[in-house]
From TrEMBL:
InterPro entries: 3'-5'_exonuclease_dom, HRDC-like_sf, HRDC_dom, HRDC_dom_sf, RNaseH-like_sf, RNaseH_sf, Rrp6-like. This is HRDC domain-containing protein. GO terms for cellular component: nuclear exosome (RNase complex); nucleolus. Residues 261-341 form the HRDC domain. Belongs to the exosome component 10/RRP6 family. GO terms for molecular function: 3'-5'-RNA exonuclease activity; nucleotide binding; single-stranded RNA binding. It comes from Eptatretus burgeri. The lineage of its organism: Eukaryota, Metazoa, Chordata, Craniata, Vertebrata. Residues 485-498, 547-573 have a biased composition (Basic and acidic residues).
Length: 614
């Protein structure tokens, strides 16, 4: 049979479509049940079939019955497509468990019974079983009764097998092993018991169910259930392909618990596609590569760092660890996706491209081998290589003259700056070597001293006369003195060297200053020693009244301990004790106390008007 509407009908048509559609409902479905409930399961009453010859014997046995019960156990965690592990079969007299792993290449033989229109196959919830039989063994089902469909008609919802077992057989089933690892061999007794239980009571359940259907809805109810079961057998397996629709289905079916923004959806799309690809390559389930809740957490939080990605996944899945760099890159891609940028622009936040950072990368060394970690690191390094690197540009010392050697100008400037600074102690001292005194503003200056060089370099135009304006007479009077020993020159005071005489007193200088007119050449700067005998040293004395003012290093600590109030009180007392001194202060300036022994008012500069001028 070909379905002309399909683009490749030879690939997609159900090979038993015609048989299923043309099949008449077996008459015995309308008969009142005569069978008694099955005996409780006994240990050892079930045959585990792992031998192909034994399989043929089982098949021969199956062909004797009008009805058989069928169930499958499946593994889908460590496989992309999944695979059937067990096929349980029950006749009114026997229970069989076929090891689908060892008999995989022989189980197509089941078609003889499974497609036989005279043998009713009873399943509970067969939609997946039908698909798995097709996919793994090329086995199709013709003539089926699905107790799940029957219960749907009766109660309006698909009751679980556990519920039907309790209702019709008074058996409380333990469905703990439903998600057990059915690859285990040899099968533990508990799992054998569980698998057997799924079909052991099923024929009786179907019988009771049909009676209920007849009682409540008559023959039409039975026919409806039959039609629904037919539809299940017409399900056709197709190898899943990845497409945008697959992602859309995922997006729409998920209970996310948050409203995703465009960046979240981009991350979901990228991670979903990545996960599917890795799962196919590694032949693992998508749930093993990256469980849904982790995928959603990463997509929601969009971690910036590799560690952030890991923090979303506890415990971290091994394949995520192996491809951590890839996942991190995808997350950054989502963060910088055009939709995200548009949104950021709308928020007024700046856009900036993010690249994977290679610092502080954490690898799950316990979960992935060295080679994997190295390849992840390599991926990150490659990504980092593409990051443009900028260097700071210093234009301050840029060479303006290309003729000059590299750094020459820099060195020259450095030398100039260095030369312009002189040791202040050496500034006015003549050199030990032969010196030449030349007239300079302020008198004769030894040419060999640094002060001479300074005077040549720096000119104080406002106050200092230029050498040209010096009186000719004076320069003529000044002979060139050659001090060969240098000892004599040192013994003389600097003042004497400059003025040539130390006899001039202050009175004479004042007179000369008064005489000075604008036309006259400016007088050289007269330096003279201050006479400290004129100073009033009583200012240093402790005032007769008031507290002791000697320096006390513990004072501040004590004052602090006394508290602010007492401190201010003390300050007031101080002020009164130094009243005589402060009377001379006008206006009185307020200074913030800073030093350890500072007393407000005492050391104010204005009080020192009788001190020697600085
Ligand atoms: P059952 O028909 O209850 O014996 O289940 C048959 C197979 O379906 C089991 O071996 C599981 O692999 C699979 N299965 C059943 N229930 C679930 C479930 N809730 N989630 C995932 N797989 C399931
Ligand atoms: Mn099942
Ligand atoms: Zn089962």
């Amino acid at each position: 049979m070909k379905d002309e509407e399909e683009p490749h009908p030879e690939l997609f048509v159900h090979p038993y479509k015609y048989e299923v559609e043309q099949l008449e409902m077996p008459a015995h479905l309308l008969e009142a049940p005569t069978q008694k409930p099955p005996d409780p399961m006994e240990d050892g009453g079930c045959e585990i079939v792992q031998d192909p010859e034994k399989l043929q014997a089982v098949l021969d046995d199956l062909m004797k019955y009008k009805e058989i019960a069928v169930d499958l156990e499946h593994h889908s965690y460590r496989s992309y497509l999944g695979f059937t592990c067990l096929i349980q079969l029950s006749t009114p007299d026997n229970d069989y468990i076929l090891d689908a792993l060892v008999l995989r290449g022989h189980l197509h033989l089941l078609n003889q019974a499974f497609t036989h229109p005279g043998i009713l196959k009873v399943f509970h919830g067969a939609s997946m079983d039908v698909i798995w039989l097709q996919r793994d063994f090329g086995v199709y089902v013709v003539s089926m009764w699905d107790t799940a469909e029957g219960s749907r008609l009766l109660t309006g919802r698909r009751a679980g097998l556990r519920h039907l077992l309790l209702q019709y057989c008074d058996v409380s089933a333990d469905k703990r092993y439903q998600l057990a690892d059915w690859r285990i061999r040899p099968l533990p007794d508990e799992m054998v018991r569980y698998a057997r239980q799924d079909t052991h009571y099923l024929l009786y359940i179907a019988l009771r169910q049909r009676q209920d259907l007849l009682d409540r809805g008559g023959v039409s109810f039975i026919r409806q259930a039959w039609s629904l079961s037919k539809a299940v057998t017409l399900k056709h397996y197709e190898k899943p392909l990845y497409s945008e629709e697959v992602f859309e289905d995922f997006l729409n079916s998920r209970e996310r618990g948050f409203t995703p923004n465009p960046r979240n959806i981009t991350a979901m799309r990228l991670l979903h596609a990545w996960r599917d690809n890795v799962a196919r390559v590694e032949d693992e389930s998508t749930g093993y590569v990256l469980p849904n809740h982790m995928l959603l957490k990463i997509s929601r939080e969009l971690p910036k760092t590799v560690q952030g990605v890991l923090a979303c996944c506890v415990p971290p899945p091994p394949l995520l660890c192996r491809h951590l760099a890839d996942v991190h890159t995808l997350v950054l891609q989502a963060r910088n996706s055009p939709e995200a940028s548009a949104q950021q622009g709308a928020n007024g936040k700046p856009e900036h491209s993010e690249k994977p950072a290679n610092d502080n990368v954490v690898y799950c060394t316990q979960l992935c081998d060295e080679q994997t970690a190295a390849s992840s690191l390599l991926a990150i390094e490659r990504a980092v290589e593409s990051v443009p690197i900028t260097q700071p540009v210093i234009s301050l010392f840029e060479e303006s003259d290309p003729q000059m050697g590299k750094g020459a100008k820099r060195k020259q400037r450095a030398l100039e700056i260095e030369q312009s600074f002189s040791n202040p102690f050496m500034l006015f001292l003549p050199s030990i070597a032969a010196k030449v005194l030349v007239p300079c503003p302020g008198g004769l200056v030894d040419q060999t001293t640094q002060s001479f060089a300074m005077l040549q370099k720096w000119k104080l135009l406002d106050a200092t006369p230029t050498p040209e304006k010096l009186p000719k007479k004076r320069s003529a009077e000044t002979p060139k003195v050659v001090d060969s020993s240098g000892k004599e020159g040192r013994s003389r005071s600097i003042k004497e060297q400059i003025h040539g005489s130390s006899t001039q007193n202050d009175g004479e200088i004042k007179k000369k200053k008064k005489k000075k007119t604008l036309n006259q050449a400016p007088e050289p700067i007269q330096l003279h020693q201050y006479d400290y005998s004129q100073s009033d040293f009583s200012i240093f004395n402790t005032p007769a009244t008031g507290k002791k003012k000697d320096f006390d290093p513990t004072r501040e600590t004590r004052e602090k301990a006394k508290g602010t109030r007492e401190k201010s009180k003390e300050t007031r007392e101080m002020s009164s004790s130094t009243l005589a001194l402060q009377k001379r202060i006008a206006p009185r300036r307020q200074f913030e106390p800073r030093g350890v022994s500072y007393v407000q008012g005492k050391y104010a500069r204005d009080t020192a008007h009788r001190w020697p001028r600085r």
